[in-house]
Design goal:
With 678 residues, this protein is an all-beta fold. It has five domains: 25-113, Immunoglobulins (Immunoglobulin-like, Sandwich); 118-229, Jelly Rolls (Sandwich), CATH 2.60.120.380; 233-287, no CATH class; 302-434, Jelly Rolls, CATH 2.60.120; 570-678, Immunoglobulins (Immunoglobulin-like).
């Protein structure tokens, strides 16, 4: 058994279709960024944004950002508007911005800080002759209030390389920015496709840039922050532990070499630069794109000579998928008794890939001639059971676990068929890990919600707030675990807010879901903490009622933040830490409810973690009662011998409000518990 921090998580206090307790939710912000040393008015849209008094940036921007309510001419606060003062020394980069109000911390929205001067589109620049004048190095903000395009105008020089970049998904907006660049005569010289433009200007003169959403969408969800730059653009950073140098890939990188076969976007291929850490961080900070970070970069020998590259257990290799669906090939030798898992990680890094893993047995005769026989072929990982709260969990990266009964050699081929037709190549990490090693590095966490009414929804946003005396749960998905994966403890070691205790979490053998829980004392003061040993996290970016009619937007972001609300939780559920049961038999477990005085209604609770929630055990604690008995049937749940982690959760009703309290439905949790099947 290993005790270790989890590496990809999001904290969770939940909202669901029937849950309506007050919690701050941001649905949009404007603008989407700012410039160091400048002041701006941040306008928010959302719900329960009462008593706004500050902002929280994650990661640390390097200097405190002052936030005050914006005041009107009469000195009264303007609704849902904060004035932000960005210090001159604040670091450039992408941040998760949350606001602090009466009901804790909100969900995150993405806010970019960059050195480029800001130009705010008025919306009246909807024709070439009304184009907003800017420089070639500008951050252009805007919101499409109508289907008309926005025009910008700048003066350029012959041979000047100009890039424009905006990734709507990375900013939690629905905008897919498209457009075109025109010279003074109106002739189109380059295209902006899906937020990306790369152009070399043909002559000195005036150029006009037209931008619009792909489907001409309008409203607050269709905002943009397009950075126009003549400087370097970084796509990815590769760093090997112990190596003082960094390998950067991108465009317009000073001193770089062009790689004609390495193309990830329309336009010119990537360039490669080997540089020191200080210069790499400077270039990354100035880049308009979110930068992908990888450990190591070692193209296999098969990329150059067509021969398999040697691979061993415990080794991690990095590379770029070959173009047109071709494969990189490795040979992995193993001994009898070796227990290991082969993992290909790319989609979890945010890449638009769908890796394919082919494993064959290689046997050679006395003359050295080899024959191959099939062992396994893995595309996507199986669906998670129970299904996670955020339905769109990436399961595109393949993994294969193996227990060797004899010495042997695997021929491993990895490819990316998804990009076979377009010729684009994206990075991957290939890892061969002992099954005895920690296996939570590719985990994902999300807001713990009650099971949805239907597979299609509803899907809702929930921030990470913990009410006094209550328990908040982080639902952890472990998509690369297999039936051979051993039990693992899940924890965090960072300092928590005052009065908050981590209750830990547990995944039994083969379990691919776990719950990390936190409990607040009854007198815990308001506060929050970034759980820095738990990055990154999966966020739902907007509420979706029905995925048959609406697209589900999610974003893999930064570390989760846990906050305390200085009001009492309606109830806290208590389970025995460990309960034993014989295989194939039933067991009764006493469930205790520690209620707030105003929480008197019945509590209908369900087990999460022991298989399909639709078949999971349930228990009702009667109105005003303090305990009940939960019956768990090991045979009905098909539980194998060993320990299985689970929690109880369900709705609890309690009046909320100072002057005229109204009933509000909360989600309450138990401590993490284990069922030991003997």
């Amino acid at each position: 058994m290993k005790l270790l921090p989890l590496f990809i998580l999001t904290p969770a206090l939940a909202l669901a279709q029937a849950l309506n307790f007050p919690t701050p939710v941001i649905t949009s912000i404007h603008p989407l960024g700012g410039q160091p040393g400048k002041t701006l008015d941040l306008t928010l849209k959302g719900a329960d944004l009462n008593g706004l008094r500050g902002v929280h940036f994650s990661p640390d921007p390097g200097a405190p950002v002052e936030a005050k309510p914006k005041l009107d001419a009469k000195g009264q606060p303007v609704a849902n508007t904060l004035t932000l003062a960005l210090p001159a020394e604040v670091k450039s980069g992408l941040y998760e911005l949350r606001v602090i109000g009466d009901f804790g911390l909100s969900n995150p929205r993405v806010f970019q800080i960059s050195a480029q001067p800001v130009a705010d589109s008025p919306g009246t620049n909807d024709k070439p002759e009304t184009a907003l004048k800017i420089t070639p190095d500008t951050a252009a903000h805007g919101v499409f209030k109508s289907a008309a395009p926005h025009w910008f105008e700048f003066t350029g020089k012959a041979g000047q390389r100009v890039f424009a970049a905006f990734d709507g998904a990375a900013f939690d907006v629905r905008t897919r920015l498209n457009g075109s660049l025109h010279d003074a005569s109106g002739r189109e010289t380059a295209r902006l496709r899906d937020g990306w433009l790369a152009a070399t200007l043909p002559a000195n003169g005036v150029y006009r840039l037209k931008v619009h959403d792909l489907m001409h969408g309008t409203g607050d969800d269709f905002a943009y922050r397009l950075i126009l730059t003549t400087g370097p653009v970084v796509y990815s950073s590769h760093h090997s532990p112990g190596d003082e140098s960094r390998i950067l890939h991108g465009w317009n990188l000073p001193g770089s070499e062009t790689l004609p076969s390495l193309q990830v976007r329309p336009g010119p291929p990537l360039e490669r630069l080997v540089t020191d850490t200080t210069n790499a961080e400077k270039l990354i900070a100035s880049s308009p794109l979110p930068v992908f970070h990888f450990d190591g970069e070692t193209e296999p020998a098969s990329a150059a000579n067509g021969q398999p590259a040697a691979l061993s257990i415990g080794q991690t290799r990095g590379g770029w998928f070959p173009a047109h669906g071709s494969a990189h090939v490795y040979d992995l030798a193993f001994k009898k008794g070796d227990r290991f898992v082969i993992e290909v990680i790319s989609a979890l890094h945010g890449q638009p890939t769908d890796p394919h893993l082919l494993i064959e047995n290689l046997k050679k005769d006395t003359a050295g001639a080899g024959t191959l026989t099939p062992q396994a072929e893995v595309n996507d990982m199986p669906a998670l059971v129970p299904a996670p709260s955020v339905a769109r969990v990436p399961l595109l990266d393949p993994a294969y676990a193996f227990e060797a009964k004899a010495d042997g050699v695997f021929r491993i081929s990895i490819s990316d068929p998804l990009n076979a037709a377009n010729g684009r190549r994206h990075p991957y990490t290939l890892r061969v890990r002992s099954l005895d090693d920690p296996d939570t590095r590719a985990a994902i966490a999300m807001h713990a919600l009650p099971p949805r009414a239907a597979a299609t929804g509803p899907h809702v946003i929930a921030p990470a707030n913990l009410w006094r005396g209550g328990i908040s749960v982080i639902e952890v998905a472990l998509p690369l675990r297999t039936a051979l994966s051993g039990p693992v403890e899940i924890t965090t070691r960072v300092p928590l807010p005052a009065g908050v205790t981590s209750l830990g979490g547990f995944a039994g053998k083969g379990q691919r879901m776990a719950c990390l829980a936190f409990q607040a004392a009854g007198d815990a003061p308001p506060g929050h903490a970034i759980l820095t040993d738990l990055p990154p996290a999966l966020h739902l970016t907007r509420t979706v009622a029905d995925t048959n009619r609406e697209f589900l937007f999610t974003r893999l972001g930064g570390p989760p933040v846990l906050a305390v609300v200085d009001q009492p939780a309606p109830a806290r559920l208590e389970l025995p830490a460990i309960t034993e049961v014989k295989a194939g038999e039933k067991v009764e477990i006493i469930v205790k409810a520690h209620r707030a005085e105003a929480c008197t209604e019945a509590l209908v609770l369900k087990v999460i973690g022991l298989g399909d929630p639709a078949k999971a055990p349930a228990v009702t604690i009667p109105a005003k009662a303090a305990e009940a008995r939960l019956v768990v049937d090991a045979k009905a749940l098909a539980l194998a011998p060993g320990e299985h982690g689970f929690i109880l959760q369900g709705p609890a009703v309690m009046p909320v409000g100072k002057n005229a309290p109204k009933p509000a439905s909360f989600l309450v949790h138990s401590n993490p518990a284990r069922l030991r099947v003997k």
